[in-house]
Amino acid sequence: MLSALLRQTDFRWFLSAQAVSLLGSSMAPVALAFGVLDASGSTSDLGVVLTAYMVPLLAFLLVGGATADRLPRRTVLVAANLGSALTQGSVAALLLTGRYALLPVAALGFLNGVLAAFITPALRGIVPQLVSGDRIRQANALLGSVRNCTKILGPSLSGIAVAAVGGGLAIAFDALTYLLAVGCLARLSLAAAPTSPRPASRMLADIRDGWTEFRRIRWVWTVSLCFCVVNLVQVGTWQILGPVLTKQLSGEAAWGFVLSARGVGMLVMSALMYRLVVRHLLRLGQLMSALGALPLLALGAHLHAPWLIAVAFVAGLGSSVAAVSWETSLQEHIPAHVLSRVSSYDDLLSYIAIPIGQLGVGLLAHRFDDFQVAATAGIIYAVAAVLPLASAAVRRLPHAQDDHARTDGYSPQPRP
Asked: What would you report as the CA-atom Rg of the chain, rounded to the nearest whole angstrom?
């Protein structure tokens, strides 16, 4: 089955584009952080640059989703990746020439955030155009394996590159990966738009139509709200309290092992998901997603490094199942002409919860015990993950196995 999937020329080029682009993107945060800190000596500058990226990403996601549904997705991806190569290349040039200044770097970060808002929904919408319905799960599992490999290798490679040649050159490499991705994406033979062209004045109407479809399909908004809550309590707690509590319990080095164990778990499960066939994939994904709460619960219980590493690995297994099952369910059951718009609302809910959670966990940590905050976040995470299973629309959603099932699996009427 793997060889059959890789024999499809379009998917092979798309997989190559994702591999090089994701490698660069996984290296960029470390390179940008040290590049800005070395050039400015200011953590506040870094905060401004990161915020400048996140704000337009949130603001333009719905526009990006509507654009990906009205234009050829290959065109959207090529243009956005080319723009990202230019913005990252400009940041690298400023750092390498010693001409760093906060305003131009923040402005380039803003443009990069706008471009990312167009890339994300187009990527999710293009997979069903590349492979047949019975191979969507396998395609997502393979893409997930590539993504998880880059998450493991990218930060380490970036750290080595920053230490050896500086953050500027590492960011320049990220710009190069975008250009390589453009070369791969340009070879896709998907030139036709998913639907007939519509006037630009219809953009707001398209966004409203996307909201109507998102709200209409019960299993979609139910699971999206679940992961909004999960991101609200998990990301900030894990990123901010995770390293602090792990250091208290087991030392600084243990945090790196914990992160690596989670990444290995995600990689192992994404490979297994290529072969796993179940009747109700979304149901399995929701059950397994609850395993992601284990590291927070372990921190709250004052468990030391061996236990933290073990539960991080298990959490990685669960997270990978959840990711593949969600991507596959959307792509199997949502019609192509609204897929990017529907997924953009899902992405917006997920992303907007992250900065709120990051701010909130800092405030809570000042008022309550850090370990109690972690444990409470873990409990809320677990409950939010399994709560959608109370809906029959989530429990009974079938895993489509062919194109006929993918078409019939979507109903334009509200699900019971």
From this structure: 21
Question: Tens of pLDDT along 110-135?
Answer: 999 999 999 989 988 888 888 876 78
List Cβ neighbours of 392 (8 Å cut-off, separation of 6 or more): 415, 416
State pTM to two decimals: 0.81
Alpha carbon distance 228, 373 (integer Å): 18
Read off the amino acid at residue 380: I
**Which residues in 178-199 are b (16+ Cβ under 10 Å) and which e?**
bbbbbebbeebebeebbeeeee
CA angle (355, 391, 124) in 5-degree steps: 50
Contact 361, 369 (CB under 8 A): no
Taking phi over 0 as left and psi of -120 to 50 as alpha, with beta for the rest, 397 belongs to beta
String of DSSP letters for 387-408: GGGGSHHHHT-----SHHHHHH
CA 265 to chain centre: 17
Residues with Cβ within 8 Å of 22's Cβ and at least 6 positions away in sequence, in order, are 146, 147, 150, 154
Tokens encoding 190: 């998907």
Query: Which 8-state DSSP code applies to residue 415?
Result: P
Instruction: Count how many Cα atoms sit within 13 Å of the Cα of residue 181 in the half-sphere of its side chain.
Output: 30
pLDDT digits (tens, 9 = 90+) for 53-100: 888 999 999 999 999 888 889 999 999 999 999 999 999 999 999 888
Neighbours of 222 (CB within 10 A): 18
